TrEMBL record:
It comes from Streptomonospora arabica. InterPro entries: Bact_Sigma-Reg, GAF, GAF-like_dom_sf, PAS, PAS-like_dom_sf, PAS_4, PAS_fold_3, PPM-type-like_dom_sf. Residues 19-90, 149-219 form the PAS domain. Keywords: Hydrolase. The keyword Membrane does not apply. The keyword tRNA processing does not apply. It comes from the Bacteria. This is SpoIIE family protein phosphatase. Pfam families: GAF_2 (PF13185), PAS_3 (PF08447), PAS_4 (PF08448), SpoIIE (PF07228).
Length: 697
């Protein structure tokens, strides 16, 4: 019997004294914990390592149960349960309970010990229970770290809506993926193999399967975006990406992830749609700006029609464009046509080609839009159905847009576009068309106003310019007038010639700044005042002085007027002349070169100055030409160079031209305007003294 306890030490069969001592030393000094319990579950022996684990001295544990020794009730219960299980016949027990012992380390963790229990048999039943404690602290820490990594990884996948999946080297899915089946509602049997492809949208499945087969065959990364049917029956966008796992040259498996990118895809679609809409809006804005500029250049109704036809083709894509004007007298809509550039536009009865569309737009003061024949029939249900059906059978048109032309809220006409194919008119395009109709209405109003002003001013100027120049023995007179633009026929240039009571002839050529009614009326006042003054004080300086006084009383400060006034004696050829800020007259001779009458011009009318008086004689066969600045000045030619060019052109005139004032004026105009765009009125007045045949003595 041992002297330390009443329980005999365990017998070690077939061991000699030396072997027994060696075993005892190993158990006592080994880095693993060891203990022996009797059948009553009391400690009989333990080594130094286990005592240190418990934090006790070995003698203090002998003969006592774990409940008496261990401070933790959980540890004591785990010990006693394992002892009881071994005594009940178990060969070995690993309770799974970890014994935490020792002082905490830097991370706050104590060392972890794994406990295993074995029966200690003699010659029959178990005489007790042996326990071994192994330090698994490093393994435990690794397991904890791995567990935390897995938790973080799974949390990351959850946060990013990713579903991890695997496939074997041949591309067949062998492992279940509950997350994928939760999304799609597939069973495990439906998912495995290539079944996961069945969840793809029918329109996407073949493409995804081909991409997967290509990736498997090439051992290349698989990356596809496709729609996936969910349990609810709707479809969401997923991106599936898988990479091959290689070991040397061998493909082991595929690891991939399905990512829900529906929100991102919708955002990209929305961004793309917004970008497209902004681009289309910018394009419509540019088209509207160009259309506005084109319409602003249209002066007449015919030009407005022509401009709208071109705009309909380029900016709207219409196959035909029509413009109608509302006649206030008969309250009917009349079509406006551009008959090969006709200035006022031809008018024909509306509605023959397209029944009721333009009338509807004018009557309702809102757009009429029919994107296809069915919509046309529906919109024309109140019209003559037989007429509408006949029209649809006979026409190739398949879409129609009619817009009212409004001025101050009142209809003045209608604009119509037709298309050879059906067309869906969006709300944005409708806004564009309405804005275009607004610009067209403004242009039409301007054109009608221009034509009315043009007719009035043209009649006024026709009444101001002399119908015929006076016929005076011994002189020949000729005039020329051409408007500065194609359509504006009324400007500030004017000329006049009339006989005086003393037998002399008065002539004048002037230029009132500006065009239109204002310039024409200003010219009328100056002309009438000059004639009145010429009959009472015919000398040129006196006439211009009187015009200055009249000008101060009647004309505005911005009304600049220049003129050349002369009085010619047909018998002597003497010319008395005064120049109020105008260009110098041109003298063309038969025998010498042409020259300019270089007299310093006075100031324009209304600018106080002492009027000069110039006297010179015109020899028989010579011609004096008065002219406006439109003959010598334009955007590409200054006045000084124009005057030099005028002398050069005149010097090249043939004798027969010099002797005929009508031919002379035509020659000067053609020579001076050749190669230049006329942008101002051109007015000339010529006085020619022919060579008189000698009378017999």
């Amino acid at each position: 019997m041992s002297t330390e306890t009443s329980v005999p030490p365990p017998r070690m069969s077939e061991l000699g004294p030396v072997d027994s001592a060696l075993l005892d030393t190993l158990l006592r000094e080994a880095p693993i914990g060891f203990a022996f319990f009797d059948r009553a579950g009391r400690f009989q022996r333990m080594n130094r390592t286990l005592a240190a684990i418990y934090g006790l001295e070995e003698p203090a544990c002998r003969g006592r149960t774990p409940s008496d020794v261990l401070a933790s009730p959980d540890d004591a219960a785990a010990h006693e349960a394992a002892i009881a299980e071994v005594l009940a016949g178990a060969e070995a027990v690993d309770s799974g309970h970890r014994l935490a012992a020792g002082e905490p380390d830097e991370s706050g963790e104590r060392r972890q010990w794994s406990l295993s229990w074995f029966p200690a048999r003699g010659e029959g039943e178990a005489e007790g229970v042996a326990m071994i404690a192994v330090d698994l602290s490093d393994r435990y820490r690794a397991e904890v770290a791995l567990g935390r990594t897995e938790e973080r990884y799974r949390s990351l996948l959850t946060a990013t809506n990713q579903v991890v999946w695997t496939a074997d080297a041949g591309g067949e899915v062998r492992e279940d993926c509950p997350e994928w089946r939760t999304i799609t509602g597939q069973t495990a049997e439906q998912y495995l193999g290539r079944g996961w492809l069945d969840a793809a949208h029918p329109d996407d499945r073949d493409q995804v399967e081909r991409a997967w087969n290509d990736a498997v065959a090439d051992r290349a990364t698989f990356d596809e975006i496709f729609r996936v049917r969910t349990q609810s029956g709707d479809f969401r966008y997923y991106r599936s990406r898988a990479v091959p796992i290689m070991r040397g040259d061998s493909l082991m498996e595929w690891v991939g992830a399905h990512s829900d990118i529906t929100t991102q895809h919708e955002a990209d679609d929305m961004r793309q749609r917004l970008t497209q809409q902004l681009g289309e809006a910018a394009l419509r804005t540019v088209r509207l700006q160009k259309a506005t500029a084109d319409l602003a250049e249209a002066l007449t109704v015919g030009e407005v029609v022509q401009a709208m036809t071109e705009i309909g083709q380029s900016a709207v894509g219409a196959d035909s464009t029509a413009l109608g004007e509302l006649d206030r007298d008969d309250l009917r809509l009349h079509m406006l046509g551009d008959e090969h550039g006709a200035r006022s536009g031809a008018r024909t009865a509306a509605g023959a080609e397209c029944p009721a569309t333009m009338e509807f737009a004018v009557r309702e003061r809102r757009p009429f839009i029919a994107g296809n024949p069915a919509e046309m029939r529906a919109l024309l249900e109140d019209a003559d159905e037989a007429e509408a059906l006949e029209f649809l059978r006979a026409t190739d048109e398949r879409a129609w847009v009619a817009l009212p032309l409004l001025s101050a809220g009142q209809p003045i006409g209608a604009l119509r576009f037709t298309f050879a194919s059906a067309r869906d008119i969006s709300d944005e395009e409708k806004v564009f068309l309405e804005a275009l109709a607004g610009q067209c209405a403004l242009a039409l109003e301007r054109a009608k106003l221009f034509e009315r002003e043009h007719r009035t001013a043209e009649a006024l100027q026709a009444s101001l310019l002399p119908e015929d120049l006076p016929k005076v023995k011994g002189i020949r007179m000729q005039a020329f007038y051409r408007s500065g633009t194609q359509h504006v026929q009324v400007g500030g240039d004017w000329y006049d010639a009339f006989p005086l009571p003393d037998g002399r002839v008065a002539g004048v050529l002037g230029d009132v700044m500006g065009k239109g009614i204002k310039a024409a009326t200003g010219m009328s006042r100056v002309r009438n005042a000059l004639r009145a003054l010429a009959f009472s004080m015919p000398e040129p300086a006196d006439v211009l002085t009187g015009l200055d006084r009249m000008f101060d009383a009647t004309e505005g400060v911005d009304q600049v007027t220049t003129l050349v006034y002369f009085v010619l004696d047909p018998e002597t050829g003497q010319i008395d002349l005064s120049n109020a800020g105008h260009l110098p007259p041109l003298v063309v001779t038969e025998n010498a070169g042409p020259w300019l009458l270089e007299t310093a011009p006075d100031t324009p009318l209304g600018v106080s100055s002492e009027r000069g008086h110039h006297k010179f004689f015109v020899q028989p066969g010579n011609t004096v030409v008065l002219y406006s600045d439109g003959l010598v000045e334009n955007r590409k030619r200054a006045v000084a160079s124009g005057l030099d060019e005028l002398v050069t052109v005149a010097s090249q005139a043939r004798p027969e031209v010099v002797g005929d004032p009508q031919h002379m004026l035509q020659y000067l105009v053609e020579g001076m305007l050749a190669g230049y765009e006329q942008d101002d009125d051109v007015t000339l007045l010529a006085v020619h003294l022919p060579v008189m045949d000698s009378a017999p003595e």
